[in-house]
Amino acid sequence: MYNEPSSRAMVIAPGPPDFELHSLGWRAFQDLVGVIMREVLGQSFQVFADSNDAGRDGAYWGTWHGKDSTIGDIPDGPFVVQVKHMNRRDTTLSLSHLADDLQKVSGLVAREICSTYILVTNARVTGAMDEKIRAELKHRGVVNPLVLNGRWICQSIAQSHALRMFVPRVYGLGDLSQILDQRAYEQGRNLLGYLRDDLATFVITDSYRKAVGAVRDHGFVLLLGEPAVGKSVIAATLAMTALDGWGCVTVRADSPAELVRHWNPNQPNQFFWVDDAFGAVRHEQSLTDEWARMMPKIMAAIRDGAKVVLTSRDYIYRDARRSLKEYAHPILRDNQVVVDVGQLTSTERGQILYNHIRLGDQPRFFKTAAKPFLEHAANATPFRPEAARRLGLRAFTRSLEGAPDKIRSFMERPVELLTDVFGQLSTEQRCALSLVYASKDLIFPPPPDLPSDDITHRLIKRFGISIGVLSDSLSALEDTFLRYAATPGGDPVPSWSFRHPTLREGFAALIAADANLVEIFCRGLDDRQVLTQLDCGSREARGVLVSVPERLYSEVARRIVSMEPTFEASGRDFSAYYLARGAWYSFFIERCGRAFLERYLVVDPNLTSRLLQFNPLLSASREPAVLAQLHSCGLLSEEDRVAAVEKASGFALDIPDAGWLKFPEWAVLMLPEERLDLLDEVRNELIPNLDYAVSEWQFSRPSGVDPKSHFDPLIETLGYYKDALSDHDVGLLIDNALSSIEDAIASDERERWEEPRIGRKESWWPRTSQTGAQPAGRSIFDDIDGE
């Protein structure tokens, strides 16, 4: 079990701790009680399924290990736990509430499985009623009756950070000042300003359990999944539990460079959270290159005690993996730290849908009408928690009025639905959303020193709407489409942002059809936004970007030319220059079609000659991928194609570099016969002279660079050549070279990384519900329309 942290100065708040337990629903409350009982009684406490429980929600046989002195000593023996949840605030328990349960008690005693009967409820229990319940239980043969009410549960939660980690929803159900110290309280308020509603509806899933285990044991987790499956919510919840349970200082960073900049070696307890680590809607090669370059420092921070959580859409991470050098950082291949968030059981899906509808703003008649269809909707494929959240809000469900049978369709088609919903908004509201979209994090009203040509002023002028009306529109959209809060760990000034990335994407699909609005966006975006938010005719778009009409191609091309990075503009910092060029080239590779590239070459006729100046190593060069894009569009001359192939061939033999075998752009640029000829040259010229290549590689190692990391690209190259040549004699020569590399590393190595700290491996996470199918019997949605 977890040990409680050392005592910290608490914020003094009036009154006893109070959590809104009535809002949990019967199933979630039963799961919470199961966690509390395990914490009190130990791992052997058993929770029964709700079907045919015979009057026992849980049971235990053994010694009472109670930590609460108010309960007192209880003899060993069989314990029975019965849970009674009330879905109305401040309900006072009466014997009539327990009529069905009390009828089963005599049978439990007769079967000798109930010596101690523990009734757990979230309701208020008066002293007189407590005596009546105990007397009734003793009359039916119970030796040790015990009643634990809502106040006792709230006190248990407030006293144990382990409980809060197991059931993080409670952070959103009560007063943080009851459970956090002063420093953590300030950070916690900032975090909850961002995710209070998300935490109030949060459901413990296997993905969350794995994520907490990865952060605890390895200091790192990468959360993967489709859009709107809950990656960011899990990351934010981990941040909250790390703040409370581990005393971590929480920093939300936007890039690896920002993470490294905020890392303080003298303050090891830091928690870093990076959303969309490798791109928001598409893979951004420049970000991945930055991660690859920064990864040694980030791993050093983790070894020193920092905790790092990254999120990424699964298709983006698949594109990013090739550049992350997993061979150098094996942790990225470890299934224990890479968690697929989208894998949800039917029980988890049902609880997520229940929470969002129960805590949303739907009227009671909607919940009653929808109830028969909710089990079916919980099995929608794919199931997206964000779609479940929208189902709980009237702003998104006008199309379902009188047609609750369409709920499953609602869950499965979020993008089409959003386009319709945005189209129904007023002009003022669409203007407000346009402002948030254009500025990403909108401070409103605009600061007085904001230039008159800024996109904010231009959009206000475009729509002809006053500041006051826009302010009202923003407020009306809060909690449904927008959130108003300070970014966790970032700028303390509150700003407006889209509540979820898919809402931003859905709005982009709407404005893409308005040519005038697109033009304003193109002119108002900063350089990074131009490179990441505009699409100029790419053939395989992933996610929704703003599509630029062809009539604006020349204007965008001139803008892109003016943005080309230079070494001087990067402050003569090679690393910054390299990353900036990577982002610039990624625009041509990922966001452009033939029509735009043709127009661009008119504006910038020397692009191809500059692209041919690519440098080794090929894994670090983005220019060949741009050349391949031009070649695929029929815009690269044969002379330039041959020049690129000849340069790569020289690298293949001289460095050596197998990037021409590894990366797909070379399958586009190289003819099959050129590929075979180069393999023959590798076989006949390079392989017999590998000893020379190894010695040259060893000699070129910069001072201070880890020998293993320095040799990893060469080791990978030789592996590619061995597989491609498939020759016994060649294999022996390569194996000898690899042995020489091992000797070189051993002789050169001056310092080694410390072994990663291994956390506790005991079984520590009490499971609160079955992870398989929803059990037969009472539906989780039975009380969805309760008061």
Automatic annotation (TrEMBL):
InterPro entries: nSTAND3, P-loop_NTPase
Protein keywords: Endonuclease, Hydrolase, Nuclease
Ranges in a coiled coil: none
Organism of derivation: Micromonospora parastrephiae
Name the UniProt record assigns to this protein: Restriction endonuclease
Gene Ontology MF, one: endonuclease activity
Highest taxon above the source species: Bacteria
The Novel STAND NTPase domain, residue ranges: 202-358
Transmembrane helix recorded as keyword: no
Biased composition (Basic and acidic residues): 751-764
Region annotated Disordered, chain positions: 751-787
